[in-house]
């Protein structure tokens, strides 16, 4: 269940919408942040906090691709492999992540530090290849830059 | 007036509707899959596409509002091609397992593919694989067959209000989940099943046991479980009920059913049914022939009547029995046995409230259409959970809430948890004071009405005794809502009636009803609680609610019945029991009830039944009470007989016989025969001949016939003459109250899935809800240090029992709830009672309990 600060945060989200169902997506993000992924407990907590039926919470959570339904590493890397990024070497970067960190798309490192998700275009084609680490944006990637960047995420 | 042209036919509409509905009204069929008449249009399947002149693209008829001058075509080369295309798409994933699927023969997809094609698919990819799920007790789910029409989701969310189904995932992998599992609150209404167009949701009760076209007969009848009286269709093959289905648009329930009605029919074919009469010989119940048993009953009753007079005989009628049976029963008690000692277990709830309300406000005060709830602006619910006692009535309240009505709940009503606008929790067992306070508050503003002077007098006394204000959370909001409401309904359950000060709660409710001109609804646990009273199965009233002490009325009945009606006042239910214990009542005749389990004060009831010289029990099963009887007579049930029930709206409805393979006899027939042997012949031919007599002798049922009743619109006051109220007793001075300071109080819980004897013999209902569970609130659980599923021992001054525990978030006080629906473990036998001095209902409030963890 959510702790008091999170309950407050969700109350605040609720207050911004005319009805409770509208607060569902932002609340699911909060739950994902808190639990790392949308476990049954996470979705139940959202249902309780919003007093929305659990079925509605589950239905919504499984519809959107940005919600995780399995535990993820502490940091989630979302790497784009769409056209621009691909042309500029994103696929080699995928291989690099695998050889260097043992990280496969959809997988998590053994130490639970990183998870990798392959993304569709994140709108950074001009400075491709690009990725998100958690909510931080990084572009102009190369193997070396990735190594440097990931150093900062423990 | 809107006039449009559909397929060259001119169609005029008297109200706005969709093109689809307009076409249907004109007898033109447009194929659909996601449309369902009970649901809001969705526009998802695109099968209903039509051409509309001056509209460039095809339009979905289900979502397109018919407009004046529209010119619509529902079939064309292009339309057929589109439909064929859609169906081909659906068949990409839909398996072609019709030969194995129960739905074949009544599958909408099968029918459409038959009509439009495609006969062969062009897709070579693998079909989606989802294993069929049999995990559930009742519903089989085959999500391979699902065509994502969302009818089940819309039904469960928007109509049933259980919100137990969601669309999970997306795209081609969307599936409907999870239907049932405790956390999702599936109510097992099966309404999702009735709207699924394909074989994705099926009932395990009849899976793979027959084909829809193999049904021999279909009988339209009404449900035998509660006082709502839902219409339903019983489908029979080889004299066995194959299934119970609703018919959309039929009856007051318009195609909705609850779990009991839909899945609770198996008791009819239970192996445990009584097969022959039983007669006690040398202390043991032994099989006997009908003639032996009936003769024995007649002889013993005649003997006791001769020796001690008719008043030594008493009868308990049943709200499970039809009007005809109850009419014959009271006539038998009065005329053959010479006794007015006739009552029923309804005295412990519905009948007690109903009679007092009518004395106050006049006959017919509770005769309100359930439909009317939907149009109410404010609904006040007190003393029970409509969602479990009368589920389909509960749906009307949920609908009103969704529409924006304010629903105020006094106390605890789990079925309205997400449908409550104002929650009021007055101190436990002192709800009557809260209602009186509310009445005082309302009357301060509204003033008296001056129509019923006695009621006005009672209200004045209450408003003199109370300030009409209260610090209770929600009180002011409710008071103002009631005062501002243009249309108010009040729903009263038996929880506040089974109270030694219950008449005060009832008076307060009557006062509110009167001042606010509200519609009043009384929850009724059994199908014929109203009919039972109307048929005269109360000591002081003859059929039609005519009081016994009025000679103008009695004379008419005496003429028709050919003899004098006994003058001595009859005893009410608990007085009969006490009389039996003291030896004043020597013989008791029970038709279709089980007082040993269904009444509080277990030890006293047992003593009373033991003290009797002669006990007759008519039932379908050998009940706990039956085991103590001298003679047990097997009766037939619900779908095995014809007759009528009067529901809570006072609508009289026809019960029709569907099967007839059991060895029991109809209740009226048994009594008819015993009566003849006792020298008071009745000679009825069938149930209809009884109704003919009722229509002749009772001014309330004048001219009623089965023909008319069969049409389903026999509404109060029929063609009859209702009586105005005649007040006997106003509530006692309003000061006495109790003090309730124990840690826990035991109270009965009404379970959605059970009713008692019959539901216990329905396997499906037993699978859903197999054992009694003790429910306590989260705070109480913390104090006790117990968790969900722990076993606990509950003790009261009358006994104890061990149960698994469940924590119920909707309980916010120190009440502990236990159901009364399981053999050998009822809650009522753990409770003692005190009679309400006015209604004579047994009050069971304030039953202190201790709970220990095992
Ligand atoms: S049975 Fe009723 S409550 Fe359960 S999933 Fe189906 S519609 Fe919903
Ligand atoms: S399960 Fe049936 S009703 Fe529900 S979406 Fe699928 S096909 Fe439609
Ligand atoms: S609401 Fe009552 S009458 Fe209707 S199906 Fe359920 S038990 Fe039967
Ligand atoms: S293609 Fe990678 S950011 Fe647009
Ligand atoms: S019935 Fe109209 S779109 Fe499905």
What would you note in describing this structure?
The complex is a heterodimer of chains A (154) and B (854). Chain A is of the alpha+beta class and 154 residues long. Chain A has two domains: 4-63, Arc Repressor Mutant, subunit A (Orthogonal Bundle), CATH 1.10.10; 75-151, Glutaredoxin (3-Layer(aba) Sandwich). Chain A is built from seven helices and four strands; from the N terminus they run ααααβααβββα. Chain A has helices at 4-15, 24-35, 40-50, 54-63, 83-87, 90-101, 143-151, and strands at 75-80, 114-119, 131-133, 136-138. A four-stranded mixed β-sheet of chain A has the order 2-1-3-4, with no helix packed on it. In chain A, β3 and β4 (136-138) form a beta hairpin. In chain A, α1 (4-15) packs antiparallel against α2 (24-35) and α2 (24-35) packs across α3 (40-50). The longest helix of chain A is centred in the N-terminal third of the chain and has 12 residues, at 4-15. Chain B is an alpha/beta fold and 854 residues long. Chain B folds into five domains: 2-75, Ubiquitin-like (UB roll); 99-269, Alpha-Beta Plaits; 278-346 and 528-710, Rossmann fold, CATH 3.40.50; 350-522, Dimethylsulfoxide Reductase, domain 2 (3-Layer(aba) Sandwich); 744-853, Barwin-like endoglucanases, CATH 2.40.40. In chain B, 30% of the residues lie in helices and 18% in strands. Chain B has a seven-stranded mixed β-sheet with strand order 14-13-26-25-24-15-16, sandwiched between helices. Chain B is globular. Classes of the chains: A alpha+beta (154), B alpha/beta (854). The complex binds iron/sulfur cluster (3 copies) and FE2/S2 (inorganic) cluster (2 copies). One iron/sulfur cluster is lined by residues 155-156, 160, 162, 164-165, 179-180, 186-192 of chain B.
